[in-house]
Amino acid sequence: MQDDSPKRFDRIVAIFIQLQSKRIVKAQELADRFQVSLRTIYRDIRTLEAAGVPLYSEAGVGYSLVDGYRLPPIMFTKEEAGSFVAAEKLMQKFTDSEMGSHFSSAMYKIKSVLRGREKDRLNLLEAHILMQQDGDLFSKHIPDALSKLFDSISEQTQLILSYQSFEAEFPSQRTIEPVGLFHENENWYIHAYCHLRADYRQFRTDRIHKITATDVPFHKTHPPLEQHLNQKTEAVFTTVIIKVDKSIVKHLRGGRQYYGFVSERDLGKTVEMTFHCKNFYDSFARWYMMFADYAEIIEPPQLKNAVADLAAKILEGNRDKKSFSNVVGSKNSIF
C-alpha cells in the first residue's frame, strides 16, 4: 500500500530540491539523509517522474534533472554563491546541531536554483574550506538550545536553566527572560533578566546543562540587546594605555581583544594601545607580563603596582620551590 502521508510528501519535495542542488545525486545519499530504505527512495523517484519532473538516471551513478529544469526566478552570481559556502561553514562551527541541520536544509534549497557550473564550483569549494572547532559552544545534551532561545525571545516567554556558573561547584536553577544572544571571545552569551538575582545577567551557553521552555510570559519589558550592552560605564571600566615595541605588535593582535582593546596609534618605533579593562589588577596584568620587557605602562599607575606585585609573588614562589628542592636533595644524599 502506497504511503500518502504528509511526511512522505515533505520527503518527496525535499528530494526534488536536493536533485536541483547538484548535478548527480545518488540514491544511497538520499536514503542516508532521510533515513529510509533504497526501495523507498526508488518509489519516491517514480512519483516525481509520474508528476512530470524530467529525471535522468544511470545505473551505478545516480539521478539528475534534465539540464535547465529548475525553479525560477532566483539566480545568484558566482560571488554570492561562493558566500554560501562560508556561511555554511560558519553555521557548522558557531551553532548547535539542530540549528545547523536547519541551515543545511536551507542550503539545499539555495543550491537548487544555481546553474550547473555554479553547483560544481560550490561542491569544489566545500571540499577545500574547513572551520576548526576549538570547543563546544553548546552542551551536547541540548541540541535544540538556539531554537528554544529564539522561541523564548520571539514569544516573550520565560526559560528555566540548569546553569553551572564558573565559581559554583554544582549547577543551579535559573528562571530567565532572555533579552538577546551575542557572540564574544569565542563564546555565545545569553543576556537575560534573572529572577533569582533580580537583575540582568549574562549566561555562557556552554555552561547550560538543561533548558526548559515555559508558557509563562515575561514580567518585564526589556530594552533592545544593543542598548543593554552599550550601558558599560567608565566607572566600571578603567582606561589602560601602554606603549609596545613595534617588533612584537603583530604577536599581540590575536589576543588583545580579550582584554578590552579599543584602539592603537603608531608612534614610530612604538605603538600606543588603549584598552578599557574591567579587571586590570589581575587578568590584564598577567597578560601584560608576557611581553613586559618590550612595553611600557603609561596609565594607570596602579597597573604598574599590580605587575610589580605579581612579579614579587613569582620570585617568592621560585625561592620557596628552590628551598624545597634543596631540602629534598639533602635528604636524598643522607639516605
Describe how the helices and strands are arranged.
Blueprint (H helix, E strand, L loop, with lengths): L5 H16 L5 H8 L3 H13 L4 E4 L3 E4 L12 H17 L2 H15 L4 H11 L18 H11 L1 E7 L8 E13 L2 E8 L4 E6 L3 E10 L7 H5 L8 E8 L3 H4 L8 E6 L3 E8 L2 H9 L6 E5 L1 H34 L1
Antiparallel strand pairs: 1-2, 3-4, 3-7, 4-5, 5-6, 8-10, 8-11, 9-10
Helix pairs in contact: 1-3, 1-5, 2-3, 4-5, 4-6, 10-11
Features:
single chain; SH3 type barrels; disordered C terminus; 24% strand; alpha+beta; five-stranded antiparallel sheet; Arc Repressor Mutant, subunit A; 43% helix
Write structural notes for this entry.
The protein is of the alpha+beta class. The protein is built from 11 helices and 11 strands. The chain folds into 4 domains: 6-65, Arc Repressor Mutant, subunit A; 78-126, no CATH class; 145-229, SH3 type barrels; 238-311, Alpha-Beta Plaits, CATH 3.30.70. It has helices spanning 6-21, 27-34, 38-50, 78-94, 97-111, 116-126, 145-155, 225-229, 249-252, 280-288, 301-334, and strands spanning 55-58, 62-65, 157-163, 172-184, 187-194, 199-204, 208-217, 238-245, 261-266, 270-277, 295-299. The strands form 3 sheets. A 5-stranded antiparallel beta sheet has the order 6-5-4-3-7, covered by helices on one side. A 4-stranded antiparallel beta sheet has the order 9-10-8-11. The radius of gyration is 29 Å and the shape is elongated. The termini are far apart. The model is unreliable at 323-335 (pLDDT under 50).
